[in-house]
Structure formats: structure tokens, C-alpha cells
What does this fold into?
Amino acid sequence: ADSVGGTADLDENLIEEVTSIVEAPHIYKATFDERFLKVPSEALVYTMKGDQKYFPIYDSQNKLMPYFAFISNICPDDPSSLIAGNERVIRPRLFDAEFFFNNDRKATLESYFSKLENIVYQKDIGTIAYRSNCVEAVATYIANLIGADVAKTARAAHLAKCDLATTMVGEFTDTQGVMGMHYAELDGEDPEVSQAIFDQYLPRFSGDIIPKKPVEIALSLAEKIVTLVGIFGINQLPKGDKDPFGLRRAAIGFIRIILENNLSLNFVDIVNKTVEVLKDKIKSSDTKDNVINFIYNRLKGTYSDKNVDGSFYQAVLFTKPDDLIDFDKRIFAVQQFKSLPESENLAIAYKRINNILSKASTISSVVNSNLFENDSERMLFNTLNNVKEKVNSLYDSKDYTGALSILADLRNPVDDFFNNVIVNSDNETIRNNRIALLQQLKEIMSKTADISVLY
It folds into this structure.
């Protein structure tokens, strides 16, 4: 690669595969006709790497050069015949890619949409054309939520799967999305539209990039949520390591796009909208709940990968935030709360409160301060009233760290209450009033998370 001023595509998977094939590796450089560079490079690279195990070479602008490296077990004194042989082998494959490209370009990308009406996506859901219409409806809904251009989003969604009907993608399946992007560009579509066609599949693998611009984000999120709702709706849930529709990847991608773009979205509303769009195909009444829980479960894995303690996730899950950014803020708040010296005592007290309330036959949150019999009750009631106003204000502004930190003020009053007050008084009125006080305490302590699971 250095000899032609280029850089070799050192694909780790390809290197590993070729290393396993050869015993005495010798590396050679070969060329191909520059005419083939008129074809989108991804199609050429697909056949070079996938079919022939060759290493493409790129220039400093990351454009494909008419060179490639190949590995051989033999090392002849004159390698010219070996090099010429490999050049002959690759030529017909590049001819094929050129032919498919030129054949596809006889029509516009949009003209292929009608062919999608004859391609079945899944027998219980319907054709790819039907699915594309569903994605368009959901994508425009999301576009409105995030401020994306609705017309461009609708156009991108309409064209998104058209390349599946082209001969190029039919032959080189891994180029879906890539060829759609190039064909849209050549048709003069808006750059945001053509880029979104490619980005709908992002992230394609763990650690891959994600869409960053509104139109791309709207389409990619819609693509993933339609997959989840549609397949869950016909009861085709993943089992064990079998996940033919890539539901786990779709959910993880959905989560990553929202979190890494810091998008404050009600994802439950998006699920509801998608269920509504696909209602004629959905067979399971539990679809909405199943999809929501599936996303929450994948979110757990996301935090696990970040080495976030599982108890923090469980504490926040108790509140079922419908905004993943909100969920993330609560996770951080719980982490900060656990570092407070008062956190363990408050968590233990919260468990005790839950136990008492779970056994109560009557629960009210209306407290009559005139029924208090000792100072510990009054102190807890007064402190609670002071804390409640502060916590509610911080909670409303989504300052969960501040809201949980304020709970530290309750530690001593709560400890005194349980040391000096018998909740289950023989007097029913007194007992119910004390239970009402604990109910108020529970409500204010559980607004951000269930702290009882932290210890």
C-alpha cells in the first residue's frame, strides 16, 4: 500500500480468516481497471473482501484505488504470473458489479418501490412495501417530536427499502442501504434523505457509529421500533440465541441512538403509536408491554456494560421512567445518593415502611397532626413537610440528584420515629394516622427510585 501512496483496509475479521487459510503467507500487490471505480466502491470492496479475501487499498481521501493486496502460500521467483492470475479472477466479479450498477441506473430508485409490493417481509405482516408505509408513519411521528424535517423524513422512509429490489443488492446483499444511498444521490435527492437511507441500519454491530442528524435519527428509530412491535405483535419473540429478525440489535440500537444523542423522548408513546400503526397485523394483546419490557431489559445490559451496579438499575426501574434520558439521570442520582452516609439507614427504613404498609388494611395519605401523641411523630411530620416542598421542586425540574440528597434530612427524624413510636397502636384511629404519615413518607422517598434495593 505504501508503494502506491495508499492505505490497506486491514479488516480484523478478514486478517483472522486469511491467517487461518495460509501456512506460509506471502503478500502481493495487484491492480484492476480504473473504469470500475465509477461503480460505488462498497460493491467492489464487497466482492474483493467477501469472495476473494483481497485487501482493498485506499488513498489519503479514503477513496478506493485501483489496487489490492492478496496473500498466497507460494513465493515464486517471478510472481508476475501469480499476480496476473489473481487480476484475471477479480475482473469478472468487477464486471458483474459494473453490470448490476449500470442496469439499476436505467431507472430511478423510487421506481423500485412498486416491486416491493411483491416481496414478502413476513407472511403474517405483509410485504416490504406495507412495512415501508408503516415505517414512514412512525418516522414522521418521531420527526415531529425531535424537530426533524417531516417532508424529508417521509421521503427517506419511502425510499429506504427500494434498493432491496435492485439487482445490485440482490447479488450483494450486504450493500443494502449503501446502494440506496448512492442511487438516491445520483437521482438528485436531498443529501439528508440519501444519508438517512444508509443510516437507517445504524448501528450495524456493537460499537458501530449511530445516526447524529434529525432526519437520520427519526428514520433509524422508526425502522427499529417497527421491527420490534411488528415481530412481537405476531408472537415471534427471540428464544435463546435465536433472533432471526435481530430484535436484540434493534432494541440496543434504539437505546443507543436516544441516549448518545441526548434525546428526551417518551419512548412509551412511540411504542403506542407504532402499535396503532400496525394494529391490523398485531395478534398479541401484550405487544405493548412486551416491547417496553424488552427495551428495559436491553437497557439493563447497556448499564451492565458500563459497570453500573445492577441495584442502581433495579432502583430506577421501580419508577418505570418512559424517557430514557430521564432514566439515565435517575441512575446517576442513585449512584450519588448511595455515597451519602445517611443512605443505608434511609434504605433500611424505607424497607421497614414498605413492610408495614403492605400489611395495613387501610391506607390513607391524609395526616391529622392533632392525633400525634409524642414529639417524634411531630418532628417527622414537620421535617417531612419541609422536605416535601424542596423534593417536589427539585423533582419537577428533574434534579434527581438534589431530590435524593434532600432525603438525608429525614434520617434522624425517621430513626427517632421508629425508636419511639409504635405504629400498630391498639387505637385504630391513631394507628391509621401513623400509617398515613408513613404513606406520605414513602411517596416522597420513592419519587426518584426505590432505594430499598440498594442494601
User: Anything to note?
Assistant: The beta strands are 7-8, 26-31, 55-58, 64-72, 120-122, 126-127. The two ends are 58 Å apart (CA to CA). The chain has a mean pLDDT of 96. DSSP finds 20 helices and six strands in the chain.
